[in-house]
């Protein structure tokens, strides 16, 4: 009896001293690596740090995630991120669909020019059936999507002239991510695209190697003070850039069920918060983010639906080529959801 009691007390003390993961025989790594393409101060990088903090707190320090910003895990080459994630070089990612779309073709859905008119349409797609299908495809490739964050609608800025109609864009040298559909879309609209990693882009803006670029206002353009390089901004919502907070499947399987649950909840919380941050000031009546651009000397043009349609009309061939690549069924489903949301 006494011995049994002693064993019981010993077991309890052991459980208190050692975390459940150790008792369960699961060996955790000292550090888990999380990849982010941009710097730590941008809302995207901050969202990753927030996730890491929530996981650390929720697991009493059992899971220690270090955020590697500025594409450092893939030597600057942002379109390689999915590959290094799949291989396990990055255990976690907070990633843009754009950077992964070179490898996972259906993600080019979000790159279709002028396909998503607003946040309502976007949310209906990512939170619904289409979002689930994309998650299942990614899962089958070895990675779990834990939550959807956001970089935002991508708006064009440049140093030459105000872009109000398609003709204004003609001949402008625009930096884009090195993913084929971006290059083809810019060419279709008459621009002269130059592909470049984000890590090299800011120096290129400074040196005037390119005339312009396209990125979300709150998530990128304001934090990098784009007005240092460009005086003109056009709000045209031509492409949406969702972010996915993800974990490598094998890494996830190595955690106890309780810790997996902590990770899932942390991802939902961190992405919800991050989405709210990057939308602030961009939804009428609060358009204060555009005022920030103006206050810093930029001329800001907001395109109406008819003008967006003029740009869209120029990208017909992009649609023709990419719909079958993305998956005709998937695009049709998304289109139905977008139309129903209007
Ligand atoms: O390279 C870009 O423009 C950026 C930072 O927005 C992405 O990673 C897609």
Explain the overall architecture:
The protein is α/β, with parallel strands linked by helices and 342 residues long. It has one domain: Bacterial extracellular solute-binding protein, family 7 (D-Maltodextrin-Binding Protein, domain 2, 3-Layer(aba) Sandwich), CATH 3.40.190.170. The chain has 17 helices and 9 strands. The longest helix has 23 residues, at 257-279. Bound molecules: (2S)-2-hydroxy-2-methyl-3-oxobutanoic acid (X2X).
Oligomer: single chain
| Pattern of helices and strands | HHEHEHEHHHEHEHEHEHEHHHEHHH
CATH class type: Alpha Beta
* Radius of gyration, CA atoms, in whole angstroms: 22 Å
Amino- and carboxy-terminal Cα gap: 72 Å
Largest β sheet strand count, sense and barrel closure: 9 strands, mixed
The total of beta strands comes to 9
Bound molecules: (2S)-2-hydroxy-2-methyl-3-oxobutanoic acid
Structurally, how many domains make up the residues? 1
Proportion of residues in helical segments? 40-55%
Q: Provide the CATH architecture.
A: 3-Layer(aba) Sandwich
Mean pLDDT: 94
CATH overall fold name: D-Maltodextrin-Binding Protein, domain 2
Overall 3D shape? globular
